[in-house]
Amino acid sequence: MTLYALCFSLFLVGLYGLLTKRDLIKIILSSGIMGYACNLMLVLFGYRNGGIYPILEKGRDAAPMVDPLPQALVLTSIVIELGVTALLAALAIRLFQKYGSYDITKIRRLSG
Amino acid sequence: MILPYFIVIPLLSAFLIPLISRRRDTGAVILSLAAAASLLVLAGFAFFGRGGETLVYRMSAWKLPIGIPLVLDAFSAFMLMMVGLIALTSLVFSVHYIRRLGQDWRYYALFMILVTGMNGVIITGDLFNLFVFMEIALFAALALVAFGGQAHEFEASFKYAVMASVSSSFILLGIAVIYGATSMLGLATIAQSLGHASPLLVLWTGGLFMAGFGVKAAAMPFHAWLPDAHSSAPSPISAMLSGVLIKTLGIYVLVRLFYNVFGAPPLFLGIFLGLGGVSILAGVILAVGQWDIKRLLAYHSISQIGYILLGIGLGTPLGMAGAVYHTVNHAVFKSLLFYNAGALETALGTRDLRQMGNAAKLLPVTSGTSMIASLSISGIPPFNGFFSKLMIIIAAVQAGQPVLALVAVVGSLLTLASFMKVQRYGLRGGRPVERLAGEVDGAMKAAMVILAVLCLATSLLVVPAVRKATLDPVVKVIMDKTHYALTVLGK
Questions:
Q1: Cβ–Cβ of A95/B232 closer than 8 Å?
Q2: What is the rounded CA–CA span in Å between residue B487 and residue B470?
Q3: Residues of A in contact with B228 (CB under 8 A)
Q4: Which residue of B lies nearest to A8 if distances are taken between CA atoms?
């Protein structure tokens, strides 16, 4: 239970950073932290106490293995996250070229 | 089986376009137009030629609790048709419009990836698969919002990207929780195993999904990204985003999850009602004050999404019919309004209503179609917006929500006021325009005329015989709630 709570608090740390930081790079890092928390949560849900790696070899029992499906999902979601981070970084670079700053309070040509 | 083709056709053309294109964009235009047209024909066939049965395609022939199914029922076929229609007209409109940024095939490749993502979200029957397709659509949308390369476009795209990644995290967390509790990822199998799960699970995951997909649908407290992104994007892309993207990633998924998987829990229907009422009023009040024509239209998207959410939240067949009907109507008239804005921007070189003047004589097609679209969105009979809003308002009164019915009526009046402003300043203003800065070509006019005709034609959906063939099967799929699971699993 502690693990789940810690994992959820990692998610909240990311959310906090995303809402309060003013630097574009820190915002990108915060969104990365949120993603890591989700991935960790997925892997945790597939884990069982004393579980072993899920490869079926000769003479091995399938019962104590951890659930392999969340690990496959996490791989997919890591790739997606890589894409998102790259896209965000590319946008941040272009924004820096246009405005000369990473500070979101200086990047205000639009008003939400 | 026609199901995989809804994903294969746009994805294949997206990757063929770079191969066949050299310096000119002719090949890309032809290929993407052909792909969009074939998707529209396929979707029309899927909707009308199936006789109301649900098709299930098992990827790689894996049996259902394990494999990933593609599911085509009346609701998904209806949405696919809408996506196909708006994608085709947007491409027709794009050809001339986007050439001012250079003859760039990348636009068409990204456009096709956007269509792939949306079709995938609509047709998949698996929660994680849905997440992946949603991210594909968002990637393409983000790149297309920033396509013009201006400073404010990057800014809007960054804001959209951050909001999208937060909401995707919420959705992924929801998927993790639901998988942890049920060990299932297929929508149908989740729906079945939720029957004997604790109500706390539905509360948790429902909250996470509501926050995540609420951002994608841009309901009122989650709307901050929409006015920037939709007003900064090139006009045909604004039409795609406002017309279909917020509906497939937002409304469609919300309805699918909360009706077909969770079985319409009353608590969440109440949240739908609240979000709907707030969105209707706040969206339109913010819209009235805008002078940038595309920002004004973007705020109206929030308000119109509010009507759809209101219809969904009522939970009655009539309310749901009104919501589904308003979904397609909004796709038609809002896309048309964004084409009009794009045509005005091309012809007059400005998006500020105060800088425009009396261009109605020089732009007869644009002004005529924008008049039709404005009347439709304001709910003036005999145009389509009137009937869908009327259905939602009647359903609200019948469901014992007279306050929300009043909110819907007031929202409609304010919509009329803000579009009178558009007509008064944008096209029939005091300053006569002598010369146009750019030309509105035949393809742009054709796209606008097609949608203007559809504004009138879709009002026929209210005729009982037509309604029985179009809206009723869709409403039946939604209102059957978790019966969806039995249909998909073939029991």
A1: no
A2: 20
A3: 110, 112
A4: B173
CATH number, domain containing residue A58: 1.10.287.3510
Domain count of the fold of chain B: 1
What pLDDT does residue A52 have?
A: 82
Domain of A60 in residue numbering reads as 2-99
Choose between B145 and A67: higher pLDDT: B145
Q: Do A14 and B128 touch (CB under 8 A)?
A: no
What pLDDT is stored for residue B355 in this prediction? 82
Examine the predicted complex and report whether its ipTM is higher than 0.90. Answer: yes
Q: Hey, what are B476's tokens?
A: 């039946």
Q: Is B66 on the interface with A (CB under 8 A)?
A: no
Give the distance from residue B453's alpha carbon to the nearest chain A alpha carbon, in angstroms.
34
From the list A31, A87, A99, the residue facing B151 with the nearest CB is A99
Which residues on chain A are in Cβ contact (under 8 Å) with B232? 110
Start-to-end CA span in chain B (Å): 20
Contact (CB, 8 A) for B332 and B458: yes
State chain B's mean pLDDT as an integer. Answer: 91
- Rounded Cα–Cα distance for residues B200 and B208 (Å): 12
Q: Is residue A109 part of a domain?
A: no
Average pLDDT of B338-345?
92
Count: domains in chain A: 1
The whole-number pLDDT of residue A37 equals 93
What does the DSSP assignment read for B422-470?
IIIIIIB-SSB--S-SS---HHHHHHHHHHHHHHHHGGGGGSHHHHHHT
**Is it the case that residue B279 has pLDDT exceeding 80?**
yes
